[in-house]
Amino acid sequence: MLTFTIRRLVLSIPTLLFISLVIFMLLQLAPGDPMAQVPLTVPPEVKQKMREALGLGAPVHVQYWKWLVQFFWIEPQVLIDHWFGTALSEGKLRVISWQTRSPVMDIVMQRMPQTLWVVGMSYVVGILIALPIGIYSAYRQYSVFDQVGTFVSMIGFSVPPFFSGVVVIVLFSVQLGWFPSIYDTTHVVTDWDSFVIQFKQMIMPVMVLALQTTAQISRFMRASMLDNLNQDYVRTARAKGLRESAVVLVHVLRNSMIPVITVIALGIPGIFGGAIITETLFKVNGIGQLLLTALFANDLPMVMTLTFIFAILIVLFNLIADVLYGVLDPRIRYD
To answer: Which residue ranges run through the membrane (predicted)?
Structure first.
C-alpha cells in the first residue's frame, strides 16, 4: 500500500504540470484585457508601466514559468513564514491578482472560512442524512419510506439551486421572516447569542446545498446496497446465524461503501470550489463567488490559481479513494 501511494504521488506531478499548462494556455486564449477596468483618466504611459509590472509584456513561456515559480516555490515559503515567523519570502514577488493588486493566496485564505462554514457544512450534513436513507431504503425496498426517499431524491436531482434558493428565500425569509436572506460574512461568534445568529443565517444555504448532496449520495448508497444484499456471502452469513443487524451493517455495508466512497471523495473538491450560484444568491463571500468575479474581471492569475487548486484537490482525493478501496475491500491489494 505504501509503495502504491508513493508511486501515485510521483505520477501525479507530471499530471498536475500538464493540467497547469493546459489551464494557462486556455486562459491566454480568453478574450479581454485586464487593464480595461483602469479609469480612462489614467495616462497611456502609466497604463503601460502597470502592464509591464503585471508581467503582461513578457512572452507566454516566461509568464508560465514565473507563475510556476511563484506558486510552487514562493507561496510555500510564505506559508512557512506565517507558521514559524521566518523571512524566507521577504522581498520576493508573489502571484498578484490583476483585479485587486493583492497576493492571490491571501485573498483565497480570507474567503476560505466562509466557504468551509457554508458549503463544507452542507456537504457533511448531506452525507450524514444520505447514508442512513440509502441503507434503509435498500433494506426496505419498495416500502413507503423507499418511495418517499425516491421522490425526494428526484426533486433534489431535478430542481436547480437557483430555483430552490429563491423558493426558500421567499418562503422562510420574506413570508415567514424566520431567517435572514443575506449571509453576513462580517459576523463574529463570541457568545451564545451570536452563535444563534450565525446558525440562523447558515440554515437556508446549507439546506439548499444539502438537498443535492443527499439526493445524489442516497441513490448511490441504495443501489450499491441492493447489489450486495442478494449476494451469496449474505445468505451464508444469515445461514450461520448472525444477527440481521450484523449482516447488514457489517458485511453488506462495508462492501457497499466502496463505490460510494468515490462519489464522496470526488465531491470534496467541490467544497473548496464553493457553490457559485448559491453563494451568489445568499451573498456569501466564498471561493465560488471569488472565482465568478475573477472571471468577469478577466483576472487570469486569480482564475488560474483557483482552478489549479481544484485540480490538485481532485487528484489528491482520487488517491485517497483508491487507498480507501484497499482498506474496505480485503480482496484489493496494491502490490
So the answer is: 9-30, 115-139, 151-175, 195-215, 260-282, 302-328
Let me know whether 183 and 135 are in one domain: yes
| Placement of cell 483585479 in the chain | 99
**Can you tell me the mean pLDDT for 73-82?**
82
Report the C-alpha gap between 314 and 320 in whole angstroms: 10
* Pairwise CA distance, residues 183 & 204, whole Å: 10
The cell numbers describing 107, all together, are 485573498
Does residue 226 sit in the same domain as residue 163?
A: yes
**Mean pLDDT computed over 193-219:** 84
Give me the CATH number covering residue 235: 1.10.3720.10
- pLDDT score at 274: 57
Helices within 70-191 (DSSP H only) = 75-84, 104-115, 121-139, 144-158, 161-168
**35 and 108 housed in the same domain:** no
Query: Which residue matches cell numbers 446549507?
Result: 206
pLDDT at 39: 59
Whether residues 241 and 175 share a domain: the answer is: yes
Number of domains in the chain: 2
* Higher pLDDT, residue 77 or 32: 77
Per-residue confidence (pLDDT) for residue 276, from 0 to 100: 75
Residue 274 three-state SS? coil
